[in-house]
Design goal:
Largest sheet: none
Structural class: mainly alpha
Helix content: over 70%
Oligomer: single chain
Strand content: under 5%
Number of helices: 11
Shape: globular
């Protein structure tokens, strides 16, 4: 119950940033339109032919989905946990009657829910007004997409958490975080579907945790993952979630030992 309340408070807190949300929505729409018309130009070179297994409608829909997911998965990273460690606020938080990592997860889920409602859905509606999008045709595919989106948010949170925990060992881990988030930018599929990458790069990229952010949910939404391929995609997301969550817990415990050793 406590974590549900924390998530709800985080959701309501985001309501205070309505201007920032609107600015983010406009920005996402603008760059999404740029990507959409890049795809239009690309497919114009091969009229009527698919590119890397995508039709033009699917590619444009992918561009819209990618932009809609930027907010919920927090594409550009977060530094609150890092700031908490660096400022010493963590010492006070650890005295409170809740799980420290669960506290941050609940807050992030509330924030992600706001981003879906206030940015993701409106952006897709605008996209649907401008373009003929490919939408899931069955309730099963909608459910599969919902599961993929939730897993994407959770994988993203635990990767960000792991990066933030470097603050236990570094005076300022911001530089490391920016390097780590560069991998997110390159391999999530936010710029283009991983299928558009060269074969020697696309294969390994699909097995990285970053593919779970955008590429996997978008492919599930488009119906490009079906049958065993769908279960494999969701299984990869779940596996990375469990791995990152476990490693994050272990790193957090080691970090607390170091914090105690320093007299914190």
């Amino acid at each position: 119950m406590l974590y549900l309340v924390l998530a709800a408070k985080s959701f309501r807190r985001m309501f205070a940033y309505r201007a920032a949300t609107l600015a983010g929505l406009v920005t996402n729409l603008f760059f999404g339109l740029l990507r959409a018309y890049v795809f239009v130009a690309l497919f114009a070179a091969t009229p009527g032919q698919p590119v890397a297994g995508y039709s033009l409608r699917q590619a444009i829909t992918y561009a819209g989905m990618a932009q809609a997911m930027i907010g919920p998965i927090r594409m550009w990273g977060a530094y609150e946990v890092m700031d908490s460690i660096r400022s010493g606020q963590i010492a006070m938080d650890l005295c409170k009657p809740f799980d420290y990592l669960g506290f941050w997860l609940a807050r992030d889920l509330g924030r992600a829910a706001w981003e879906i409602v206030a940015r993701g859905l409106p952006l897709l509606l605008l996209y649907g007004w401008l373009f003929d999008l490919v939408l899931p045709e069955t309730a099963g595919r909608w459910l599969a997409f919902g599961a993929a989106l939730i897993l994407a948010i959770l994988v993203s949170f635990h990767w960000q958490l792991l990066v933030n925990l470097a603050a236990f060992w570094m005076v300022d881990a911001t530089g490391l975080a920016r390097i780590a988030f560069l991998g997110v930018l390159l391999f999530t599929g936010i710029v283009m579907p991983l299928a558009f990458f060269p074969d020697w790069l696309a294969g390994p990229a699909r097995w990285l945790p970053f593919a779970a952010y955008v590429n996997t949910p978008a492919e599930v939404f488009l119906g490009l993952r079906v049958g065993s391929g769908l279960w494999l995609a969701l299984g990869q997301q779940l596996a990375w979630l469990l791995i990152l969550a476990l490693v994050g817990r272990l790193v957090f415990r080691r970090g607390l030992q170091r914090l105690t050793a320093q007299g914190g």
